[in-house]
Design brief:
Pseudouridine synthase, 343 residues, 10-stranded mixed β-sheet, single chain, Structural Genomics Hypothetical 15.5 Kd Protein In mrcA-pckA Intergenic Region, Chain A, globular, 3 domains
Length: 343
């Protein structure tokens, strides 16, 4: 029996980048190697990919990691979480400028600019980060050699800027995916929000689900069956007249997690139209103040959220890698204006 759980790619970053299966061996199942058993049950996954998944702990038998030569027995329960295969759509390499922070034979780190879509999808088939990466990593590839395909193990929203790690080959993708799956990756975001959170440092533990009123939006729910476990740690770095600069660290990686959690807290991201931050939520009703806020919106017309730092274990060397980035010009200019603003 196979139960497939593939979450819509637009809704949940953590799950959408994986194929999830739960397979229960039949009562009359003959002894069979685990890798061979999965090759039969999952015909779309290569034997190599299955073996890598087993080696990296993305395949569990009766809740425990094991080896490829484990002999499957009747009623054994096998859970599989493999990185998603490429979509059945041809992605065209495009020569688009990229800000590459680090690169080696196995992975690269990109500082994504706001406004760039990460992966081709309906309405955005080209001009994405993946189109640009396909061009970049295959420059100078010898004739006849199969093109490399960049492997996404996490993503950030179109209008969020900041750091992303991309795998360049399958072993690296598997090992990086395992770190994201286990929540051992360090991810720090800087967010400009309306108001001043109280307490100034805290942790938000609220389940998230897709809004029934607008499927594009994620919202907090108390329904344990519908909601997905989500944890955001925040710390106030600087407080201005009517806004604050926060540091947010993700323990889980739900789509729009920071945006939804901060809105629930009562401190929507500055200029985040989808989550109610594209209005003067704090401050007086004076026309001069409204003009100041509108000027800030024109300088930073997107949600003021930046993926500032990223830390993980290199999938091949085993060394800890830590990367940091500067705030982009639009967000920095608005923060500077709030620093100088006198009520």
């Amino acid at each position: 029996m196979i139960e497939e759980d593939q979450t819509d790619i637009s809704q949940d970053e953590e799950n959408s980048l994986f194929e999830h299966y739960r397979i229960i061996a039949d009562p009359g199942q003959a002894l069979m190697r685990l890798d061979k058993f999965l090759s039969v049950r999952l015909p779309n996954a290569s034997r190599t990919k299955i073996q890598l998944g087993i080696e990296t702990g993305l395949v569990l038998v009766n809740g425990k990691a094991t080896k490829s030569n484990y002999q499957i027995k009747p009623r054994d329960e096998v859970s599989v979480s493999l990185p998603h295969p490429p979509r059945n759509v041809e992605i065209i390499p495009q020569d688009i400028p990229l800000s590459i922070v680090y690169e080696d034979d196995y992975l690269l780190i990109v500082n994504k600019s706001p406004g760039m879509v990460v992966h081709p999808a309906y309405g955005n088939w080209d001009g994405t980060l993946i189109n640009a990466l396909l061009f970049h990593i295959n420059i100078g590839l010898p004739e006849g050699k199969e093109a490399l395909r960049p492997g996404l193990v996490h993503r950030i929203d179109k209008d969020t800027s900041g750091l992303l790690v991309i795998a360049k080959e399958e072993i690296s993708m598997m090992k990086l995916a395992k770190q994201f799956f286990d929540h051992t990756v360090e991810r720090t975001y800087y967010a400009l929000v309306w108001g001043a959170p109280q307490p100034p440092t805290g942790t938000i533990r609220q389940r998230l689900t897709r809004s029934p009123k607008d499927r594009r939006i994620t919202e907090v729910t108390q329904n344990e069956e519908m909601g997905k476990h989500a944890i955001t740690h925040y710390k106030t770095l600087e407080q201005f007249s009517y806004t604050s600069l926060l540091q947010c660290n993700l323990e889980t990686g739900r789509t729009h997690q920071i945006r939804a959690h901060l809105k629930w807290l009562g401190h929507a991201l500055f200029a985040d139209e989808m989550y109610g931050g594209k209005a003067a939520l704090k401050g007086p009703s004076f026309s001069k103040y409204k003009a100041f806020v509108e000027n800030c919106f024109s300088l930073c017309p997107r949600q003021a959220l930046h993926a500032k730092s990223l830390g993980f274990v290199h999938p091949i060397s085993g060394k800890w890698m830590q990367f940091d980035s500067e705030l982009p010009a639009d967000m920095q200019s608005v923060i500077d204006k709030w620093r100088k603003y006198e009520p």
